[in-house]
């Protein structure tokens, strides 16, 4: 092989949990899935059929709701919330990975996990999945990929890019959050020349942060990264009306889907409550062209990577996570590693008070980025 090998080889593992039935599940019926594990660069994929019965589905949903209520200060305590997160993570692991899948993963020196989840089960907090008191997303670069039957818009073309990384920071839209100021400071600190490229941050804030002005700025497709810091909302019954709070109103998920992006950003970070959620049992985009939440809308618009929060996120937690993430993103130049570092550091700083920011942060996209076996074989 060209370039030989190094001591620690990349081992990017794809775990896929897919529904092989094209119809949407009926309420109360057992759910059948095909679970597979594939190591990039190898010629074989292991798979197994599993069935999630109604009692297991109910248990998963109830624990998810309990943690949501904890994030709203309505249920549980710091200790019981931590116990619930570990119990839910173990239940997800035992249900979908199982004994045989665990043996396969245990025999690998994994460097990143890409969790390919069917569009109908994005409503579960997969970032908690783990065993022995350790969440996989806290140990390895971990990203969600979505399996959908919808034809989506094309992604941004990297071959047409210049040497400037353009960031649009939408902050302080309601002028009542401190975290936006800290997140903006972290972004503006990036504005310095680096190896071969430059970072430029444009700011939309306060009374200027209207829905119309946002659409005007993003439609031409000049921004590589979009960062929103503010309030978010999620409607489980009508996820297409979930949205981000601007100065003059809500930018709903379906409005995002309808933006005529000339070229969507590579990466969007919605640093807002419940901005990474979707409803269960429905598609990423329905036949009526309604989006299943904010993440679904941005992904369907052609965004390559999207980050948000599963539950309510505290002002402190959002600020800490974003500051650490952007610092490491441009030091490591690796999306997955930066997100992992933000998870770890935020957990270290806020676990004592039971803050869920580190565990509720959701990354859609390629968390492995440059950690690829083919690049090592070629001496890259």
Automatic annotation (TrEMBL):
Superkingdom in the source lineage: Bacteria
Residue ranges of domain CHAT in the record: 87-345
Pfam families found in the cross-reference section: CHAT
Matches recorded under Gene3D superfamilies: 3.40.50.1460
Protein name, as recorded: CHAT domain-containing protein
């Amino acid at each position: 092989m060209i370039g030989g090998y190094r001591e620690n080889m990349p081992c990017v593992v794809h775990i896929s949990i897919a529904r092989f039935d094209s119809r949407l599940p009926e309420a109360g019926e057992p759910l059948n899935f095909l679970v597979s594990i594939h190591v990039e660069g190898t010629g074989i994929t292991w798979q197994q059929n599993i069935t999630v019965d109604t009692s297991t589905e109910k248990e998963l949903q109830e624990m998810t709701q309990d943690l949501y209520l904890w994030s709203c200060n309505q249920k549980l305590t710091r200790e019981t919330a931590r116990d619930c997160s570990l119990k839910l993570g173990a239940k997800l692991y035992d249900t979908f990975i199982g004994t045989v899948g665990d043996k396969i993963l245990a025999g690998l020196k994994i460097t990143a996990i890409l969790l390919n989840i069917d569009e109908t089960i994005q409503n579960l907090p997969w970032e908690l999945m783990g065993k022995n008191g350790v969440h996989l997303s806290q140990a390895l670069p971990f990203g969600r990929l979505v399996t959908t039957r919808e034809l989506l818009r094309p992604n941004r073309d990297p071959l047409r890019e210049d040497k400037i990384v353009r960031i649009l920071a939408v902050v302080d839209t309601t002028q009542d959050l401190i975290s936006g100021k800290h997140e903006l400071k972290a972004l503006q600190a990036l504005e310095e020349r680096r190896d071969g490229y430059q970072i430029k941050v444009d700011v939309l804030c306060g009374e200027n942060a209207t829905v119309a002005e946002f659409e005007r700025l993003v439609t031409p497709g000049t921004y590589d990264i979009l960062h929103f810091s503010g309030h978010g909302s999620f409607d489980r019954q009508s996820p297409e009306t979930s949205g981000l709070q601007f100065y003059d109103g809500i930018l709903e998920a379906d409005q995002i889907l309808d933006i005529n992006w000339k070229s969507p950003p590579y990466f969007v970070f919605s640093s807002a409550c419940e901005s990474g959620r979707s409803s269960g049992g429905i598609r990423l985009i329905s036949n009526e062209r309604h989006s299943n939440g904010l993440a679904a809308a941005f992904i369907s618009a052609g965004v390559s990577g999207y980050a948000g929060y599963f539950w309510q996120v505290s002002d402190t937690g959002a600020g800490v996570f974003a500051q650490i993430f952007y610092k490491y993103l441009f030091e490591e130049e690796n999306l997955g590693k930066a997100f992992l570092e933000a998870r770890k550091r935020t957990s270290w700083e806020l676990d004592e008070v039971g803050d869920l920011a580190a565990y509720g942060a959701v990354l859609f996209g390629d968390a492995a980025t440059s950690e690829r076996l083919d690049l090592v074989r070629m001496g890259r």
